[in-house]
Specification:
Chain A: Its main location: membrane. Chain A: Belongs to the binding-protein-dependent transport system permease family. Chain A: This is ABC transporter permease. The complex is a heterodimer of chains A (about 350) and B (about 350). By secondary structure, chain A is mostly helical. Chain A has two domains: about 1-90 and about 310-340, no CATH class; about 95-305, MetI-like fold (Orthogonal Bundle), CATH 1.10.3720.10. Chain A has helices at about 5-15, 20-35, 40-45, 50-60, 65-80, 95-130, 135-145, 150-165, 175-180, 190-195, 200-235, 240-245, 250-290, 295-305, 305-335. In chain A, helix 2 packs across helix 5 (about 65-80) and helix 10 packs across helix 11. The longest helix of chain A is centred in the middle third of the chain and has 38 residues, at about 200-235. Among the domains of chain B are: about 105-170, no CATH class; about 265-340, no CATH class. The radius of gyration of chain B is 21 Å and the shape is globular. In chain B, helix 3 packs across helix 4 (about 125-140) and helix 4 (about 125-140) packs across helix 5 (about 155-170). An eight-stranded mixed sheet of chain B has the order 6-7-8-3-9-10-12-11, sandwiched between helices. A four-stranded antiparallel sheet of chain B has the order 2-1-4-5, covered by helices on one side. Chain B has about 350 residues and is α/β, with parallel strands linked by helices. In chain B, strand 9 (about 225-230) and strand 10 (about 230-235) form a beta hairpin. Classes of the chains: A mainly alpha (about 350), B alpha/beta (about 350). The interface of A and B includes residues 244, 246, 262, 335 and 336 of A.
Amino acid sequence: MSRGGSLRGYILIRIALMIPMVWVLLTTVFLMMRVAPGDPITASLGGKLSPEEVAERQAALGFDRPLIVQYFDYLWDAVRFQFGTTITDNQTIGSLIVENGGATLTLTVAALVVALVFGLPLGLIAGRYRETVPDAFIRVFAILGYAAPPFFVGLLAQLLFAQNLDWFPASKMASPIVQATAETHTHILIVDLAIEGDWEGVWDVILHLVLPATTLGLLVMGVFIRLVRVNVGQALGGDYVEAARARGVPERRVVSRHAFKNALIPVVTVMGLQVALLLGGAVLTEKTFSWPGLGSRLLDYLTNRDYIGVQGLITFFALIVVVISVIIDIVNALIDPRVRY
Amino acid sequence: MADPVLSLRDLRIWYGAERGAVRAVDGVSLDLMPGETVGLVGESGCGKSTLGRGVLGLLPEGAGHAGEVSFKGRNLLDIKQRELRSMRGPELGMIFQEPMTRLNPLMRISDHFEEVLQIHEPKIGKKEARNRSMEALRGMGIPPTRYKQYPHEFSGGMRQRIMIALALVLRPAVVVADEPTTALDVLVEAQILRILADLRRNFDTALLLITHNLGIVAEACDRVAVMYAGRVVEQGPAYDVTTKPSHPYSRELLRSTISLSTTELHSIPGAPPDLVSPPPACRFHPRCPNAMAVCAQQWPPTEATSPGRRSECWLHATDRIPVGLEQPLQREALAASEEA
C-alpha cells in the first residue's frame, strides 16, 4: 500500500538535488556579471590609470582569459568557497559575510517572527470569519503591507515613531556606546551581548530592531495573511472538516486541529519562497535604517561597481534561498506524511 | 409496535438564493424505527442529501428550517447548537459519499478514533479507547496492524470501512449514510452493503440510506421513501415499492434502472424542477405520463394504498377529483416553457 518512500530517503535525495540547483545558480550569477558591460578594473580605476596599467591589472586578475576558462576557474573557487577580494575595500567575501551577516540575520529573523506572530493569527481570524468586518480590515491591512515599499514604510515609521513620538531609535543597530564596547564572539551583536550578560545592551538592540523588523515584517506578513486566510477558508469547507463536524468534534477543535494544520502546509512552502522577498526587502530596509548588514553593503558595492563584491554577495543570498527551500521541503515532509519520494 | 427512534414531521429546509429560497426539502414526514433501514431514493438534486444533513444539523450557514426532527422525543431543530454537537457521534452518525477525502490527511487512523472517543467519553482511558477502536476496525476487516497508518495508505473501499467504523465506534442509534457506495466499485459496494446489513442486526442501529440506486434499496432496505423535488411522493415496504410502485414517479424511476435484462435505456423526459419556483400542485405533473388536468391545479392527497404504504398522487383518489378535471393534461405550452 505505502509507496515505500521513507522520510530519510526523501531528505537525502532532496539534499543531493541541491548540487545541480547550486550549479545552475552559480552559472547564472557568473554569466549575468559578464553580460554587464566593462569589468571591475575599468569600472573602478579606468581614467585614473593608463590603458597599459589597466590591461596589466586585468591580466593579473585573469580577466583577459577566455570566458570558459574564467568560468571553470570561478566554479573551482566557488567549490572551495573562494569568492575573491572586493576591489573597493579589499575584503574577502568570507570576512564580509562574517562581519555583516549577523546584522542581516538578526533583521530577517526578527522580521519573520513579526510576520508569523501577527500574520498567522490575523490570517486565521480572517479565514475563520470570512466576509465579516474584521476580515475586511485584515485584508486591506494585508494588501497595504504587501504593496507598500519598505523604504517608504520605513521612512514613515522613522518620522512617526522615532522623530515625533521618540519611542524607538531611528537608525543603526545599537547605540554607539553599546556598539563600541561589545566583545565579539559570534559576530551577531545581540547574541554577543547576551553571552556577555549585557542585558541593557540586548534591550538596546531590541529597541533598534523594532522599526526595521516591523517594516520588513509587514511586507512578508501581507503574503502570509492572504495565504492563511484562503487556505483556512478552503480547509473549513473541506470534506474531512464536515466529516469531523458530523462526529461531533467541537468547532474550536475543528478549526485548530483539522482546518488550521492543513491550511498551514502551503504556508510553509510559501514561507520558503518568501526568503527571497525577505532578503530583497532587507536590502532596502537596511539602507533606510542604516542597518549594518549585507544588504546595505550590497547597495554600496553596486553604486561603486565593485563586481567582485556584488557577485559574491548575490551568490551568497542565492545560496541561502536554495538551502532554505530545501529545509522547507524537509519540514513539509515532516508535517505531511504524503510527501515522500 | 415500538416507537420510532427518529421521526420527521413536515420538515422543511431551504437555502437562501438571490432569486428566492431554494426549497430543497419541502414538507417531509418520515419515521425510522430502531434497527430499521430506510432507503431514501430520488434523482440528483431532489433534496436527499439536504434531508440527511438536516437530521444531523449539518446545514450550511444561511439554510433555514421548519417542522420537526424528533429524536428520542426531542425536536433536534429546537435544541442548542452545542447540545446537538454533543449528540453527533454518540446518538447520530453520518457516513459520506466520497471516502477518499473524508479523513484528515494529516491525522493517523488512530488519531481519528481517539479524538472522537475522548470528545464524547472524556473519562475513557487511552488504553480502552485503543481497544475499542481496534475492535471497531476489526469488525470492518481492517487489521489492527494498520491502526497507526495514515489515510493515504488505504484504498477507497478500506477508507469507507474506516469511516463506518469511525461512525460506529460510539454506537449511535441513528446513522445517515449518504450514498456510501456511489464512489466505489461493485464488489466493494456489495461488501459495504453487507457490513451495513450486519450493523442493524448487531447494534439495533437505525439506518437512513440515501441512494439513487433502486437495486441497493431492494437489496438492503426494509422500507423506502421516494423523493421528488423536496417531497416524499411514496413510501412503503422496500419489496412492495420496488416491485409494485404506486406512484408514477417511482414507476418511471424503476423503469430507468439498468439490469442484465435491459435492452433499451429508459429515461424520464425533462429534468427535476427548479426548486425556487417548482411547478404548482403536483411537482411531477410536467413529466408524468399519467398527468390529469387536476394535477396541475390542486395538491394531490396523500393516500394509504395498503398497510404501511403511502402515495401522494391523484391516481389513488380518483373519486375526489373535481368534475371535469380527470381528462389527461394538455401539455404543449408546458413543453415549450420547459425547453427554455
